Fold this protein.
Amino acid sequence: MSEVNTGSLSPPKKYALITGASQGLGRSIAMELAGRGHGVVLVARSTDKLKEVVSLCKELNGGRAIALEMDLTRPDAINDLMTELERLQLSIEVLVNNAGEAVWGFFGDMPLSDHLRMMRLNMFVPVELTHRMLPLLLRNEKAYILNIGSMTGYNAMATFSTYSGSKSFILRWSRSLRMELKEKGISVTCVCPGSVLTGFTERAGMQVMDDLAKRFGSPPGPIARSSVKALFSGKAEHVPGFLDGITATLMGLLPTGLVEKISSGIYLKKLPHR
Ligand SMILES: NC(=O)c1ccc[n+]([C@@H]2O[C@H](COP(=O)([O-])OP(=O)(O)OC[C@H]3O[C@@H](n4cnc5c(N)ncnc54)[C@H](OP(=O)(O)O)[C@@H]3O)[C@@H](O)[C@H]2O)c1
């Protein structure tokens, strides 16, 4: 881990920590929070991209942006992150568990190590980080946790078994946590986006889905705005985007088996036959 840019810090107040803030949705959420005046702690691996987000955020919030470069899947990563936060003595009131990846393909065809790494990033990291951050968040009269799920977490999905499973976990965990923490002044929100145009699908090796993603995907800016709005209005769960919101509602009304068949069918059709 290395600190990319601490800049000159003003007294620590109202910081938000965002994982996966170097690009995509996390970058847009960081900028949205900085635009609302929050200091931001940005966590990801890519030094250059983080530097760029730091300077964009500093322009928005008057200079309060810090980047912590780290691979969150490393066994000691959260320990190192907490040590760094302790050293920086920041008051953090918002935690955004955003960093995530997808493994796409038939379960048995994909290396086990890919499934396990993804499960670590998408599930173990948010759990460990939230557990370790709770004492810091509880120091505030009011604090917020934003967990990034996915619409794929709403139903079983062939070709996305461990990914959709990880996002189902995030949703259930998030809603359970919300009930426990409400009385303690911490509001927990789970945002479940549909397709967001971030390059996420390319990184998951899903280039064959590009045409669909371009047709139905949303740019990350409005999704981030809607997510942050849902967070501060204290929503338990939110599907950003008008069309995705309608789709999620319809999916909830149809028989589970039918929804699974339709949504899995779209992805199965795109995978080469075994
Ligand atoms: N895009 C979509 O269509 C979509 C839809 C629904 C839900 N989501 C969810 O939204 C979240 C963000 O996705 P996105 O589309 O913005 O993805 P993205 O563009 O690929 O960004 C992922 C972020 O996570 C960071 N990251 C990845 N592995 C990491 C690691 N081992 N340690 C630290 N940071 C790591 C990446 O930064 P570095 O590479 O610099 O480390 C990057 O900042 C994810 O949880 C995803 O599941 C995305």
User: Anything to note?
Assistant: The first strand starts at residue 2 and ends at 5. DSSP finds ten helices and eight strands in the chain. Residues 2-12 have pLDDT under 50 and may be disordered. Residues 223 and 256 are 26 Å apart (CA to CA).
